[in-house]
Each structure stands twice: as structure tokens, then as C-alpha cells.
Design brief:
By secondary structure, the chain is an all-alpha fold. The chain has helices at residues 2-29, 36-69, 74-77, 80-106, 123-126, 135-169, 173-202, 210-233, 237-250.
Length: 252
């Protein structure tokens, strides 16, 4: 699990590095310009890191499912080699899917006003300004979302159904509490990430306000990467003790 958390941290660093500097420039100057190549590059790394996070959260749900449903075989199933293989596969699949999509978007013709009403080059605002037909791109995005969003969502739901059923079979209350605590952090991260993702991309409301779209985008581009380390750190006894000692020393 700690190996997967380190991979999640790398993804969050890539996402923040890709989005936040230009976002701060826009906030300071009320507007900003970006080259077409820079916009496509930003879109690629943003979508690739988000796709990888979808796949990695799926792998982490499988890891928690094995840990709770098959605890005696956990170390033999989730070996270090197998964990690395799952992580590399997630990286390659995430970047490969988005590379194909990005190439298709870069071939669109942008002959009208080249103004994006957003704080970064997001997919939906970018597809609103080309003068060429975007049906093929939208169809590609839909096909790409099947292995990167819908299938991972089904796997996560299936994993947690098995986890809940196994927890309910535990007779001892402390055993139930301990089993649930092993996946509570991951479940919190998954809930925040997928709620914002589905709100913006999968089931956007007709006529959704631009401000609301920006707020939701801000959640998964800035808030989620910021909150992930905090959520996982709260389960670490050493970090909790260090925070308690710090508060006790300077405040109490």
C-alpha cells in the first residue's frame, strides 16, 4: 500500500506542476496567454495523470480487497514484483490512451476566437472553440473513458462490495473496526476524486454554469492532490505523534 501511495504522490506532483503555475499567473494578471503547443502539452499531462490516478485507485482497491478478503495469502499475491508490474501497467496505459486522444485534438482547426474560459487547458472548454467538427474527438473520448473510467469504477465498486461483505462476517467488533480502518483512507480519496470527475465530465448538467465547472475543476486539480497526503498521513502513528507533540509544544 505504501508503494502505491508513493505512486499516487508522483501523479499528484505531476498534476500540480502542470496546472498550478499557470493558474497562479492567471489569478495575478486576471488573464494569460499560452501557446498552442503549451496548451496541448498541458492537456496531455493533465489527462494522463488523471487517467493514471483512476487506474491506480483501482489497483489500490484490489490491494485492499485482497488484504481483507484473503489476509493469509496477501503477501504471496501482492508481491513487490506484482505491485511494480501493476503500477507500470497503469502508467503505460494511462499515457498511451491520452497520447492518442491528444494527437487527435492537436489536428483540429482553430480558426475562430482562441479564448478558453478556464484557468487551464481542460478538455471540455478546448472542444468548444475549434471550427472543425469535433464528433470524432468526442467519440474517441467516450471510447477512451471505458477502460480508464467506467471499468475501473465497476472494479472499485465490486471490490468494496466484497470488502463490506467480509467485514460484516467478522464477529468481533474490534476486528471489524480494524478491517474497516485499513481501507477508510482509500475510500475517502476515491469518493472525493470520482465525485468531482463524474460531476464535470461524465454527467455534466445541461447549461452548467462556467463558474461551477471551474470550482469543480479546482477540486480535483488542487484540492484533491493537497488533501491526499493529509488523509493517508492521519493513519500513520508516527506522524500523528509528531503533530501532537508539535501542538503540545507551541500551543498548549
Amino acid at each position: 500500500m505504501y508503494f502505491f501511495i508513493s505512486q499516487l504522490s508522483i501523479s499528484d506532483i505531476i498534476l500540480i506542476t502542470d496546472i498550478v503555475p499557470n493558474m497562479l499567473h492567471i489569478l495575478l494578471h486576471n488573464r494569460a496567454t499560452i501557446t498552442f503547443a503549451g496548451c496541448i502539452t498541458q492537456l496531455f499531462f493533465f489527462c494522463a495523470s488523471e487517467t493514471f490516478e483512476c487506474l491506480l485507485l483501482t489497483v489500490m482497491s484490489y490491494d485492499r480487497c485482497v488484504a481483507i478478503c484473503n489476509p493469509l495469502r496477501y503477501t504471496s499475491i501482492m508481491t513487490s514484483e506484482y505491485s511494480v508490474e501493476l503500477s507500470i501497467t497503469s502508467w503505460l496505459l494511462g499515457f498511451s490512451l491520452i497520447f492518442i486522444e491528444t494527437i487527435s485534438i492537436s489536428m483540429l482547426k482553430f480558426c475562430g476566437p482562441k479564448i478558453i474560459d478556464h484557468f487551464f487547458c481542460d478538455l471540455l472548454p478546448l472542444l468548444e472553440i475549434p471550427c472543425s467538427d469535433t464528433f470524432i474527438i468526442q467519440f474517441e473520448v467516450f471510447l477512451q473513458s471505458i477502460p480508464s473510467v467506467f471499468i475501473p469504477t465497476i472494479i472499485i465498486i465490486y471490490s468494496y462490495v466484497n470488502i463490506v461483505l467480509n467485514i460484516l462476517r467478522i464477529q468481533i467488533h474490534t476486528g471489524r473496526q480494524k478491517a474497516f480502518s485499513t481501507c477508510s483512507s482509500h475510500l475517502t480519496v476515491v469518493s472525493i476524486f470520482y465525485w468531482t470527475l463524474f460531476s464535470v465530465y461524465v454527467i455534466p448538467r445541461r447549461g452548467q454554469a462556467s463558474t461551477m465547472s471551474k470550482v469543480l475543476s479546482l477540486l480535483y486539480t488542487v484540492f484533491t492532490p493537497m488533501i491526499n497526503p493529509i488523509i493517508y498521513s492521519l493513519r500513520n502513528k508516527e506522524i500523528n505523534k509528531a503533530i501532537y507533540d508539535l501542538i503540545h509544544k507551541y500551543i498548549i
